[in-house]
Amino acid sequence: MITKSKVFITIQYIFLAFLVIVAIVPFWLLISSSFTTEKEIIENGYSLIPRVVTFDAYRYLFSVSAGVLRAYMMSIIIAASGVLTCLVLTILFAYPLSRQDLPGKNFFAFFLFFTMLFNGGLVPTYMIYTQLFHIKDTLFAMIIPGLLMSPFNVIMVRTYISSNVANEIIDAAKIDGAGEYRSLLSVVIPLCKPIIGTIALMSFIAYWNNWTNGIYYIQNRTDLYGIQNYLKSVLDSVNVLQSQISGQIGIDVKDLPSMGIRMALAVIGVLPVLVVYPFFQKSFIKGITIGSVKG
Predict the structure, then answer these.
(1) Could you tell me the pLDDT band of residue 241, with boundaries at 50, 70 and 90?
(2) Predicted pLDDT of residue 295
């Protein structure tokens, strides 16, 4: 029995190691290709270890495309504002739904669930945001549409509170003179750090990777572009950049690292997520597992 158990554990470790390798290799190949010359990629294809190491792609991006840093700053502002607002709205909606004595609880729960199944469609949504709320070409256009609050996140937080915050604790806080807001800030939120970290990470990834809002709602204010919209615009115009700008910086068109530029752009876009995720990994796993136990 002990031998079978050890064999099974060994197989599990081997399988998990295989999954880790499968997850790491694409990122390593991406990073390696961004430091490879264009000639090397064309002649020998992509490799995990570049034979010729060069920084031409990154040098080109940060010398010609000076807007990378500005787009980075805009993405940070958009993501920070969006995540903070998302957490506030999600918690303020989820906490009352977790209370058994909420008047009209079934109506609000149905109202929340209904929005997960039906929506007005892209055209009506666009008309409402642009003609009624007038957010076109504003910073709010990058924060509000589609990302500000998710019904799925509300359900997760509500389930977590119901499963892990006993009503007796909240009642004890009220006996001591705490109101609803005081109970929420001093009792509920400190006990919900895992699920809050989970929602913050999911919201950050959604905001960081979003590029549709920039396409739909930003036309003239390209200075409001986040990193994803900016990278997309660079990719769309890479051939134009090759023909018009390469001569100005002393690089022949045939030697311009177009494939390396694409890989470098991908590295620049995914790097913040890779940096942030390890800090939220523990909370993310705990929040997902506990917050999804029951509805």
Answers:
(1) low
(2) 42
Q: How many CB atoms lie within 10 A of CB 9?
A: 10
Please name the amino acid found at residue 27: F
Q: What's the CA gap between 198 and 154, in Å, rounded?
A: 12
Per-domain boundaries in the chain = 66-291
pLDDT at 294: 45
Backbone angles phi, psi at 250, to 5 degrees: 80, 25
36 DSSP β-pair partners:
53
Six-digit token string for 121 = 């469609």
Structure-derived torsion over alpha carbons of residues 132, 135, 137, 139, reported in degrees to the nearest 10: 180
Burial class of residue 142 in the structure, from the number of CB atoms within 10 Å of its CB (0-12 exposed, 13-18 middle, 19+ buried): buried
- Render the chain in DSSP notation, one character per residue: -HHHHHHHHHHHHHHHHHHHHHHHHHHHHHHHHHTB-HHHHHHH---SS-SSB--HHHHHHHHH-THHHHHHHHHHHHHHHHHHHHHHHHHHHHHHHH-TT-TTHHHHHHHHHHHHH----HHHHHHIIIIIS--TTSGGGGTSTTTS--HHHHHHHHHHHHHHS-HHHHHHHHHTT--HHHHIIIIIHHHTHHHHHHHHHHHHHHHHH--HHHHHH-SS-GGG--HHHHHHHHHHTHHHHHHHHGGGGT--GGGS-HHHHHHHHHHHHHHHHHHHHHHHHHHHHHHHHHHTS--
Q: Tell me the two tokens of residue 275.
A: 């940096």
CATH T-level fold of 66-291: MetI-like fold (1.10.3720)
Return d(Cα 89, Cα 96) in angstroms, integer: 12
Q: What pLDDT is recorded for position 73?
A: 86
User: Rounded distance, CA 214 to CA 226, Å?
Assistant: 8
What token pair was written down for 58? 């990154």
